[in-house]
Every structure is written in C-alpha cells, then in structure tokens.
Amino acid sequence: MQLVLFQLVNSLAFGMLLFLLSAGFSLIFGVARVANLAHGAFYVLSAYIGYTVSQASGNFWLGVLVATAAGAVLGVIADRLLLSRLHGQELRQVLLTLGLTFVISDAIRHFWGADIKSVSPPAPFEGPVTLGGLVFPSYPFVLIVLGVVVFLVMRWILRGTLAGAKIRAVTADPQMSGTLGLPVLRISMLTFAAGIGLAAFGGAVGSPQLALTPTLDSTMTLFALIVVVIGGLGSIEGAFIAAVLVGLVNGFGAVYFPAFAQMAVFALMILVIAVRPQGLLGRKLGNA
C-alpha cells in the first residue's frame, strides 16, 4: 500500500509538471498559431538557469523567479525575431523551432556540460513528511499544490477577466478579432511570453523532481504534445485532466510494467483520438 501511495504522489507531481508545460504549449498554438517544438527546450534551459541562480544565491525560489522571467523574455525574443515572420506557415514554424531546439540543447551542453545535475528541494521541503503513519517525500506535495493553484488562476483569468475574454476571442477567430479592433499581434506576443513563462516555471520548480540533463527537452516536448492531443487544443481544463492521466499512466506503468510504460501512454492517446478526435475537452479550430 505504501508503494502504491508513494507512486501515486510522484505520478501526480509529474502530472502537474506536464500541465505547466502543456498549458503553455496549448496557449501558444491556440492563440499565436505557432507549433512550437522548442517548448521542451525552453523548459530545460530555464531549469538550468534556475539551477545556476539558486546555486549562486543559495535561494531556490529566487532561481525559480529569475528562470521564469528569463524564459518569458527569451520567448518574446524568439517570437519577435524569428516566428513573427512565419505566421500561417506551419511547416516552416516546425522546422525553425526544431532547429531552435538543437541550438538550445548545444548551448546547454556548452555552458553546463552533459553531466546529469541534481537539485535539492528547498527548505523546509527537503525532508520526508509522515501522513497516516506512512512516510513520503514532501516536495512532490509542493508540486501538486503549485500545479492546482496555477490551474485555478489560469482558469479564472481565461474565464473571468477581460484579458481572458480577449485571449479566447483571438483563439476562436483572429481575423474577426482584428476586425473588431483587438490588437491580435500584441495579444499573440504576450500569450507566447506567458506560455514560455509557464514552461520555464515548470522547469525551475520541477528540477528537484526530475534530474537535469540536456536530453530532457525531447522527452518533455513529446509529453506536451501527447497531453495537448488528449486534452484538446485550447482547453486548459482538458490539459489539466490529460496531464493527470498521463502522469498516472506513466508513473504506474514505469513501476508495474516498465517495458510497456511508454506504450501505455501512446495507447491512451490513440484511444482518446479514436473516440474523440478533438480531445477530451477540445474543439476544432475555427469553431467558436
């Protein structure tokens, strides 16, 4: 029973990291119409930035703050200098962001090396916690709480604020939104920054949970794509549910049938596509 509960907590924590990553990916593709295959690379790069700042300052949360801000700024730079020239050209976006992934990965190897780096959880979450007589690591609970809080805040912004209404309008119909006077390009740029910032935040806070390695980018990008496909494009609620499902399937699969764990995640995605092609809570592009 302790093994099951231990794996449940770790799986939910991983699911929350996937949500932070995939929610930003979904926002960027839904609003800016950019297929950003460098999303996982920004996640990893920001994790390394947070690691460096926390090592230098001795303050983990300062590293998270700097990494999140740096990720958002780098996202804006990439959008303005590169991706803004390719609006509506999905194939070129894919090739460009794929190339950007290799550039970021080589930059990480140059500045930080290829060795695996581990990050200690911040005080007071570096030790275990006892619940019901069972001992658990405490930091996964922090990730679960952070993921739920970010989900609730994002849902409130998108559903209950004027800024959220503008984002949803641009997502539904950018041409009509521009005709009605909404600054579509500005909204797209800010959404791109917010999406990369979410990934950067996830990378920084997730570094004590997942060891840092330059090859982590491709894994996280793949998971982000799977979560978005399962949850449905443009749905934060769908991304949250899908991230939890993928985290559970991946976590328990790695323990009980490790040879088929990755296959189980893809099987889940195929099953959802077969039953509901637009995802659990998604909608087709162009529909309100």
UniProtKB/TrEMBL annotation:
UniProtKB keywords: Amino-acid transport, Cell membrane, Membrane, Transmembrane, Transmembrane helix, Transport
Membrane topology annotation: Multi-pass membrane protein
Primary localisation category: membrane
Pfam family membership, one: BPD_transp_2
Subcellular localization, as worded in the UniProt entry: Cell membrane
Keyword Membrane recorded: yes
InterPro entries for this protein: ABC_transp_permease, BCAA_transport_permease
Name the record gives this protein: High-affinity branched-chain amino acid transport system permease protein LivH
UniProt record similarity statement: Belongs to the binding-protein-dependent transport system permease family. LivHM subfamily.
Superkingdom of this protein's organism: Bacteria
